[in-house]
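Lab manual, section 2.4: Encoding a predicted structure.

Procedure: take the sequence of the chain (270 residues), apply the prediction step described in section 2.3, and record the output as structure tokens. A sample record is shown.
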Amino acid sequence: MAYRLLALDLDGTLLRSDHTVDPRDVAAIAELQAAGVVVTIVTGRLHSGAVAAARACAIDGVIACMEGSHLIDLATGATVAHHPLADAATARWRAAVDAHDLAGFVLDADGIHHDHRGAAYAGYVATWSPNLRVVDADAARALAALATVAIGDRDAVAAAHAALTAAAEPPYAVQFAVGAHPGKHAVLTRAAGPTKGTALAALCEAAGCTLADAVAVGDWVNDVPMFAVAGRSFAMGGAPDDVRARATDQLATPAGAGGGIAEAIRRAWG
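Recorded output:
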């Protein structure tokens, strides 16, 4: 089958562990683009955290950020879709951050905003966007959140997660360990509904093709909704077993090593 669109996760997939793109992947993408295939990005990062990777691969169309919560046309800077957190969900998150003395980060389309408690984790959250700004409580309350992150001790984060998901109409909220800070955990909150799967559907529509025409490559749990709808999907080597099981194909190239995209292109397009 002649697939018409390639959708790429960033961290661990297109990006190596040092956050650069392997020259082999750049060359393979360029060859695919020259053949008329649309190459796009579907990432958990914010737009500002995805731009450098897009430029490295000459990707200038519509990409999906924050797991489908924000779709933006890189060529024009125009927002194609925007799904912010509801005001009530953001208010509950702020109350949980204060109640459990957590470091809180508000992520919007332009960057990440935090108060003094977030300084120790600034290097970690910069993965989502390099645009970090310290703000006071009043300024933070005025922000329209695309997503939020709270970091602290595991039990405190678990309590915050429970409070957020106990709402009548809860947002999407996921808790995870912060590898860069042993013993610390984080909870990320965003609007319920958008996923990498809904994002891929929107990107295919924008490109004038169907989901059956799409190939997706990723390495983590948040890539599974994209795998579920793509015509063909590749899980990076070393991805969790349940993620690899949900893809149609498994790559030999380890996540974060570089060269995996070239391998996927070779196998999908010959």
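Check your result against the sample. The first strand starts at residue 5 and ends at 8.
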